[in-house]
Amino acid sequence: MPDPSKFTPVFKQWHEAKQRYPDVLLLFRMGDFYELFGDDAEIAARELELTLTSRRAGEGIELAMCGVPYHAIDRYLATLIRRGYRAAICDQVEDASKAKGLVRRDVTRVVTAGTLVEDSLLDTHDHNFLLSIGREGGRFGLAAVDVSTGDFLVTEPSARAAPDDAAEPELPTTGPERIDPAVAAVVDEAARLSPTEVLLAPEVAEDEALRELLDHNLSVPITVAEEHRGGFLSPAEQLQEHFGVDSLRGYGCEDMSAAIAAAAQALEYLKHTHLDGMPHLSGITTYSTEQFLVIDAATRRNLELTATLRENRREGSLLSLLDRTSTAMGGRLLRDWLLQPLLDSARISERLDAVDELVRDRVTAEDLASYLRDVYDIERLTSRVTAARANARDLVALRDSLRRLPAIREVFDGCEAELLSMLQGRIANLDGLTQLLDGALRDDPPVQITEGGIIASGYSEDLDELRDIASGGKRWIAEMETSERERTGIDSLKVGHNKVFGYYLEVTHANTERVPEDYERKQTLTNAERYITPELKEQESRILGAEERMHELEYELFCDLRAQVAEYAESLLRTARALAAIDVLVCLAEIAIEYDYVRPEVDGGAEIEIRAGRHPVVERAPGQEPFVPNDTLLDRDRHQMQIVTGPNMAGKSTYLRQVALIALMAQMGSFVPADSARIGVVDRIFTRVGASDDLATGRSTFMVEMNETANIMNNATAQSLVILDEIGRGTSTFDGVSIAWAVAEYLIEQIGAKTLFATHYHHLNELESLFDEVQNLKVMVREEGDHITFLRRIEPGGTQRSYGIQVARLAGLPDAVVERAKEVLHTLEREDIGTEIGPSQEAASHVAQTVQLQLFEGAPHPIAEELKELDPENMTPLQALQALTRLKEKAEE
Predict the structure, then answer these.
(1) Residue 613: beta bridge partners?
(2) What pTM does this model have?
(3) Do the beta carbons of residue 443 and residue 453 sit within 8 Å?
(4) Rounded distance between C-alpha atoms, residue 201 and residue 722, angstroms
(5) For 126-135, what is each residue's pLDDT tens digit?
(6) How many angstroms separate the CA atoms of 157 and 893, rounded?
(7) Is 142 exposed, middle or buried (0-12, 13-18, 19+ CB in 10 A)?
(8) What is the DSSP string of 383-410?
(9) 882 φ/ψ angles, rounded to the nearest 5 degrees
(10) d(Cα 173, Cα 711) in Å, to the nearest integer?
């Protein structure tokens, strides 16, 4: 860095700002551009594809420079934020026309991924959480803040402790040591919240295992918070001061010191970034991860809840199928409900009652959907209002939304469902605010709030008077053109205006001889001369003076109006959340009607009983064959574990997933794709599906598979639903069968979780004869010579065939390869190789002896051939001993 004392005055301003924000890109306002200098300019030029130039910053000092137009700043900020950068906005904080000397500039905002409020930088469908992680007394605390909606959530994630007498499954774990369950719980909840930025307390940042897992699971910027800057105030006192309360008891977190520390840390960070206006936060919402069905990252991915597994796209996911919401607020809440299904059967029934009534009363549902389509994103509009970032169009959108509230409230008058009545009561009476905005705003104001055209006539007498002066002057000028043409006899004379020269009289060169003496030449053009007169100059001064005062007054009136709206923030946010819930319920009713879903029965029992269940996404996939429904019965007695066998592509995976999705949908409060469904509440859904490696962390396909399996073994409970789609396929057959068998035993004997286990290891069918809790299921197939037809029907029983060669033929494998595979299979079956891989039916509950499968063996071993020739029943003890000695010698050779 050059010697700051040699900088010009404006660059001394820049240097002072940069010193305060050394780790972010500083965008420095100079006229109509935001400029970046030095290293910041080189980074911005590369990332934004801007031209890099230089500028003289002082005596003998040249700094690299690039810039972007001020009116396009959001577009460039979006790119920087998306690429992991933070930016400080250094604005002119006084009017240049009134400044004495150098215009004062200061940083008004630090823009980071987790602190955005600008609509153009946000994803409409998702929350924009800043996730703060703290630790106190060995416990982790999380605070998730979305300043764009005012949400402030806190929790202390809890890890399930394994029973004292539970045996430990011998499965691989990530890294040389098993992950701390507390760390795993934090990362699991962080992944569910899907933040755009993570803020770590300094002591938490030192936990390398946590940092590594966060990096791997989130792929978002991680910021280390500065040391506590709350002065003499404790974290709890900081929160109390901000929210204006005497204690945190009303928020339910007074005894959660780790969560309080995380929340205070987040609040400090937000105040540090929102320097010119802190968005309104609607208090603290405390929740426990034990209130909701836990869905870990692998399960969310495998069930394709919010994105497809292969392409990571929203389209094709369950969320995409269900989302018929009319508002952005409803869309975000639907995602929350989907990723956080309930455990309380009473609350689930409350939601189902509301959906049920809307399904039966289609008129009410359609009326609500119609009104909600005219409601804008009140949550984010309110946040921008309280942060003093809303423009006039934002307030018009808010006004238009509020106009729909009376009609929405009226629709609920005949509703019986308790939840619908409660939501109606949460819609605040905002008629006064609506009238205020109606009287204050024009219908189509400009985006800029400093250029006038915002405030409606009749709102301010002073403003109306200035407008009359300005419009009267403009009328006089318009009339002047006619009068001057008559006075001078110059028919082509015209009155014009531009920003540089103001008002003028324009006369062509051919008529200059007829110009009166009182015309004063102002500008010469190629074909004409421009003039000014004393009267025109006087009127111009009057008009421009009135317009300048008018714009200033209109800006003041708008800022005052915005401040008045901010006073309604609590009522607006409460109303917005009620409307979001209504929107989700209407959406679920619409889906239930269109897709022929039924109301599930959800209780605290242990059974999952589904009649004619369907996969919600697969059955709606375009170009698919008609979907074949299947029944399911899982309980803790005769049907705790179901071993599902059958060929690839026959529908095993679809069947497994549809059971999990139906249970999840039921617990979120949705109707389900089935003829009937009775769901005993499950506390967690686990899936182990498919095969994929993770090269970034050096984990093979098999290691990924074992990591996911270990997670299930260490965290599932008797109330969980476990979906296993192949275990042990990434290693040798002997190892794979052994692991699959051991996992199945552990789930039956130690955990007791309801389990669907799809496998090609047909040896697992023998578990049915060993455990009363196991039932075999198979996917039905019709064979016609070498060809097979998938019937997609699940029936009791096991199968000893995988039809792999037939599936290979369907996939397009060359005929020569298929025929050769059949020859090899015939040889293996004839020689009976591998038929005793798995446990025999006479085995007890554990595998006794197994033989390693060896494909493509060479010629029979001579010792084995000689053994076959021996006749032990007719040999004397001496002969037997001699034969044994001879064989031993040959073996040693």
Answers:
(1) 630
(2) 0.84
(3) no
(4) 35
(5) 999 999 999 9
(6) 63
(7) buried
(8) HHHHTT---HHHHHHHHHHHTTHHHHHH
(9) -65, -45
(10) 8
